[in-house]
Design brief:
2 copies of one chain form a homodimer.
Chain A lengths: L2 H10 L17 H14 L2 E7 L6 E7 L1 E2 L4 E6 L3 H6 L5 E7 L2 E13 L5 H11 L10 E14 L9 E4 L2 E2 L5
Antiparallel strand pairs in A: 1-2, 1-5, 3-4, 4-7, 5-6, 6-7, 7-8, 8-9
């Protein structure tokens, strides 16, 4: 068991009885979690974006809308914003999607894409999905393409084991 | 307008039309946001906790349960976990509560409280609320008391202005 396993298990057990079924459903197999995770990425519009403020090292968190193209999450925020500077800093990003009892956690690398440099189809899709077109902000906004390296998905404590659905950028295909 | 205002305004505009009312309700006055925020802190059980990994400077994010005593948020996680080490690092914490379209964002300082050092009443309340008693983990868990310094509350873009409901640890009493 890695330190990370200790980590996330120890982080996952705080669950109020009111919301924990008397007998929680059995943990989903990996293949089901992968399907659920891909479906959530395609359905959800907002996510919680955690970055590190490069000026202070302090954690930052803000809800942002995103578009998932099947391989990466496209975000946009102001280039001067704390989130924008954090996303551009190279310190990485960690993103939470879904409900706190049905989470998908994404760790990824960030590619900064000037609004004028993004393919029109992707920018159009982002604008349609989010109702906001960063191309109309005359350069004060940037796109950020988050390529997931690791994705985890769990509901209650009994799903902490086997919560990795992507490692090293590859979806885990089975429960092995 | 401070850089922070630029920040959060620029972060807040990504909103999909599907979820934005044709004519969004008028922004809540500060006093109403303060009431709503206190009510949410008392009602919610889970929150999104963003920290900085002291080992790497990378952002970390995890959902944790909490208890609000009217002045501070009490959290608990493993002392070896990434969140636990980040909370203890002195880099601060940023916590998101509620929905992405009705958010409360808390920036605060963190006090580490060994499980044996917390007053029994507070620890009992935490255990009852979260269904998890860190005192039974024989020292592998810690309590973390997050004292808010700044709290913001907003729904849609028209509430980004005036989103501060607490500054310097003081609730804002009016719209001045």
């Amino acid at each position: 068991m890695t330190a990370d396993d200790v980590t996330d298990n120890s982080e996952g057990v705080c669950r109020p009885p009111a919301e924990v079924p008397a007998s929680p459903p059995p943990p989903r197999p990996t293949a089901e979690r992968v399907r659920d995770t891909r479906e959530l990425l395609g359905r959800e519009i907002d996510c919680w974006v955690a970055t590190t403020d490069p000026a202070t090292g302090a954690p930052h968190l803000v809800p942002l809308s995103f578009d998932w193209d099947g391989r990466a999450m496209l975000l946009s925020t102001g280039e001067r914003s704390v989130a924008g500077r954090g996303l551009a800093s190279g310190a990485g990003v960690r993103i939470g999607l879904g409900a706190t009892r049905d989470v998908v956690m994404v760790d990824g690398s960030v590619e900064v894409v000037p609004t004028a440099a993004l393919e029109s189809a992707a920018a159009d899709r982002f604008a349609q999905r989010t109702g906001f077109d960063p191309r109309e902000t005359s350069g004060s906004y940037l796109f950020f393409r988050v390529v997931p390296s690791r994705i985890q998905a769990w509901r209650e404590e009994n799903e902490l084991r086997g919560r990795d659905v992507m490692l090293d950028g590859r979806w885990i295909a089975s429960d092995d």
